[in-house]
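A reminder before we start the practical. When you read a complex entry, don't treat the lines as separate problems. The point of joint prediction is that each chain is placed relative to the others, so the output describes one connected object in space. Small molecules and nucleic acid strands, if listed, are placed in the same frame. In the example below there are four entries. Take a minute to note the order of the lines before looking further.
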Amino acid sequence: MSIHSDAGAMSRSPAEKETRMTAGTWLAIAGLVLLAAVPIFAPSLQLLVNLALAKGLAVLGVTVLLRAGQVSFGHALYFAVAAYAGAFLLAAWPGADLFVVLLAGALGAAVSGLLVGLFVVRYRGIFFGMLNLAFSMIFWSILEKFYHVTGGADGIRLPRPSVLGMEMGRHDFELVLFWLTLALVGGLGWFTLRWLASPVGQLFRTVKTNETRLEYLGVSPRRALLSGYLLSAVLCGVGGAIMGVAQGVVTPEYAWWIRSGEMVFIAVLGGAGSVPGAFIGALIYEFVRVFASAFAGDVWQMLLGGFLLVIILFAPGGVVGLFERVTRRGAAKGEEAA
Amino acid sequence: MKTLFVTTALCATLPMTALAAEKPETLKIGMTTFLTGPASVFGVPAQEAAKIIVENINAEGGINGVPLEVSFIDEGAGAEALTSEYRRLVESEGVEVMFASISSGNCQTLAPLAEDLQVPNFMWDCGTQKIFEEQDYEYVFRTQANATPEMLAAVIYLLKTKPDFKTIAVVNQDYAWGRDSWNIFSTALKAMKPDVEVVGEFFPKFGAPDFSTEISRLQALRPDVILSTSWGGDLDTFVQQASQRGLTNSSTFVLPLAESSFERLGASLPAGHIVGARGDHYFLHPERREDADFKAFMEEYESRTGQVSVYPVFHTSQAFAALQAAYSKAIEENGVDWPSEEQLLAAMEGLEFQGLGRPVKIREDHQGVEDQMMGTTVQNGDYPFATMENIMIFDGDDITTPVGEESIEWVSGLDASFIDTVAVDSFEN
Amino acid sequence: MNLTIFLLALFDGIAYAALVFIVALGLTLIFGVMRILNVAHGSLYAIGAYATVALTGFFLSLGLAPALSFPLMLVAAILVGILLGGPIEWLLLRRIYDKPEVLQLLVTFAVFMILEDVQRLVWGTQPYFEARALQALGNVTVFGVTYTVYQLILLPAVALVLLLGLRFFLRRTILGKLITATTEDREAAQSIGIDADKVFLLTFIVGAALGGLGGALASPTTSILPGMGADMIVLSFAVVATAGLGQIEGAALTALMIGLGRSFAVYVWPEVAVLVPYLIMVLVLLVRPEGLFGSPAARKI
Amino acid sequence: MSAPLLETRNLMIRFGGVIAANDVSLKIEAGRNLAIIGPNGAGKTTFLNICTGWIKPKSGQVLFEGEDITPLPPRKIVRRGVARAFQIPQLFTEHTALENLLISAAAREGMRHPLRDLSRVPERAEMMHLLEMVNCADVAHRTVDELSEGQRKLIDIAVALALRPRLLLMDEPTSGVASSQKHKIMEILIRALAEARVTSVFVEHDMGIVGDYADEVAVWNAGNVQLRGTPTEILEHPDVIRDVIGEVA
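Here is the predicted structure of the whole assembly.
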């Protein structure tokens, strides 16, 4: 299953790329700074933004796979695995440290990602998507069924973890969590960009365009795909772990297929294959969703659906694509002027 | 006149303990309820009821002159939307009191949140008994009973009306309510009637569209009694398929939430099965049906929705009754024009109030004590659906877990003699 | 497990499989021809059920015989196909055939979200139940266990008719041949003058109608309520992928496996019943990566 | 006397009724350019596919430097030093010409510099040089699907050369190229091969090309080597004129 992804940065001349990248970096930094100020200027939006960014990390995972032309309809699996890993850890060891919880989540996602990945990287297109779906649904059923372990449909409550040994009130804790999330968004976002541009990342991306050549370069397409699959699982995991801690509860709904669909939805909304797009998309999505459900009562789903249709039909590049189109037009004008 | 004198007297004698709050323009209430998803069979009636009740209260000048204003949150929109919206109402919209929620899961998420946000939260419908047994809350109260008395009432009614059954099977929804309610029910049953054999336990997934296989098995097993605490579409489907295939003739069904499905099930719920309503909630409440206010509300509700009231409507009325009672009590006790938050919270302890059912009392552990009604279905042609006969209303105090005790432990400590210690009023219909 | 139990489980499994198959049939037909995995299929299923309830409710209230509900099911299905399937293909899918598969899939996902709310706006949130069709056929008793004729006999019969009918249609009739030709090679088909657009439109309408029919046939046995489509769609996904995409016979076999697996699970180990479809899917694909009946596509270099 | 670079022993395979390889035994010595000619369907491409492990023979062996590589998958054979260029260029269409080579180099070098930007790897200069060798330096930064068939052919070969193979198998390097271009391309190619000291086997239809650039020619027919010799011997051989050239002309 292949999809438009702007290999843009790669396909321009190095010089040009330099400028674009620095420009992009500045935009990114500006965005992060702006977000960092949310708790000060718009505290009521803090949690919402935090949840959106957590989801954004998960979407980033899906985005990575899109770069290899693969679409997973089951990545909610890693979102849920990590969240539950954190929950079980906190249940067994109340007041465990936030960092330990997130680490446990990421680890859980990595392990499950490896196990499932070894199997699914043999498949492409629809089958790849459907198999991921199947695995996430199996996990979902287990969470629902094995009530005495997983708390069934009502899930598990997460007592608030400590931070570096400090017990915190909800307000302080959420502030810390918010900025930590932001730091992770910046860090993991940067890492993902580097990775995609790196030799390994490039080999991974070629799974999309020509596996035959990849094989004839002496590289196993499956291993190339697995490397990115692992990264995507971990990203989803970190997002899920944060989500669980921020919500204070994890439910099987975390693994439900509609959530996986939602992630792909957001990835495309933001700009399929674009790293910043994952977070921009997540922010837009959460705002539309929350305010729709607040003010448009019971038609929020319809609004989101319509929104998605408009994007796909009129701006398949997603929000980022739109932005680039505009800036390019601007640049073109500039050249004419000169 | 008398109250006026009392208040002035109070003011004169003792100095004001807590400072009064400034009287607001409107008293803002937030209510979480299911507007989407399967549970909207409860959520939407509750929302309708809330609208009617608020109109009535405001028509009578609101609470001490302050009109009510309710905003609703859809519990079906998912946990993120729910928590962020809950906070938005409290932090930005200046909502004074929250009513949350229908889902036990959401109650468990929102209770600690309410505590942290320091907003009084009435748990107006969720069933889980665990909340107050596992943790103490300052801001969270429950304006209705919980799963324990609801299940105990069902067990006692079953033992009173069908003392000599031998086997039982359960078909419950596979989520906390289905599991916990069976846990309480079976524990109580083993305690009070040890010789009963459980021949089958089925937990089809929530929202299962088809119970054919379970029903085939039940027909093969032929239990005397079949329990299902399911509700909404699941209960409808199960009862429909069971009656289509004659299972309702061979076994007695115990359906503690069936009252909310009477109208939809129509003739498919035959006579002679045991039904309940999570409290004394019934649009033909034997003690209340003649009262003017009760009648007026029932007619109003039916004319607006085209349906008869179901228990979430009663639970809603109790939440608002508690709200009114608490404010007037706080105003009166402190002799103020409008109570501060502390004064309101203080007033909640031991508060007595009456919604559409019998009066309810809030215990010191913030658990509401509510009487429980059970009955047997009858198709007597008054309505195109089943109604209740041989109704019993059990005293809430006797069947609610004592303060500080854990339900399962307490229930497992009971025995057959317990049945006779429970105060009960019986009615023909 | 004695023979009686075995047979009972068998009956339940077949009845359930029949319904699943009918729904999955539409999905696999659409995929086989158009290479589009239609997420909105679940909504079409739900709307088919709602429409049937509405129609039967109306006509039977005029005092017509319950037997009339059977033709009404067909009407409902056809309405779904034409009034929903038609526009979806015509207005949306047609514009994105050149787009990547994921976008096509997301379009149907968006349609699914929209239709979910449409259902609620039109029919509200209260569950409906309209079983008169089922009651009209009465019951049969096997080993002291009562089954409804509707589930034990009618549903499997319909499923069988549809299976054979569709096979015949695709292999023996001109139109069917045109469709299969378009499936195999769109360009070639167009070059010999087949109007692929028409073929796609027709296919989607038929597929949507089959989804609607599934809902219509399910309506007498279950509560019709919001969200009923979401579960059905994942189940049919599992069937379609396990069968091998676009494999009609495969879908039948898979539906049977899933139906039986589930019912036997209820007898042996109820707790795992939910897991069965997905376990079957994973296990099958583990051994046959292209699905039971799928054929691997050779890479030409 | 050292083992031949590549040797096949009694390769057998048939697709359906067609015998694509019928007891093919062939030795290829290092340092020469062997051309394979023959009518369509004679099994030329199949031979390349077997040698690179893409399809497995029903019976028989492929030896590279004396070692049996028959059971290995293509990637393992490639790592031993057998590279391949394709009739239809197999490139990463979303990447630029240079990036295609850099990725090839990255595959060759493995995980040497995990997180360095591909455009900054030390192999960059080497790859630019390779592009110059195949006359594509000017399009280094164009995405390959913007390029002409001829350029893509050359880049496809350059990508194979970037692996520093000892043997390069090419499937019709000049097919789909304007005949005016063919000689130019082969000139470039042979020079590049010589410079990189790569032994090559290339399937070719154009007898002119074969005559000018091959050191040796093998004539394929009905899944086997019918004749083998120097270009002049072969091109004047009556059977060849009848079966092959006749068909091509």
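Discuss with your neighbour: The beta strands of chain D are 6-15, 18-28, 33-37, 59-64, 67-68, 82-85, 167-171, 199-203, 216-221, 224-229. What might explain this?
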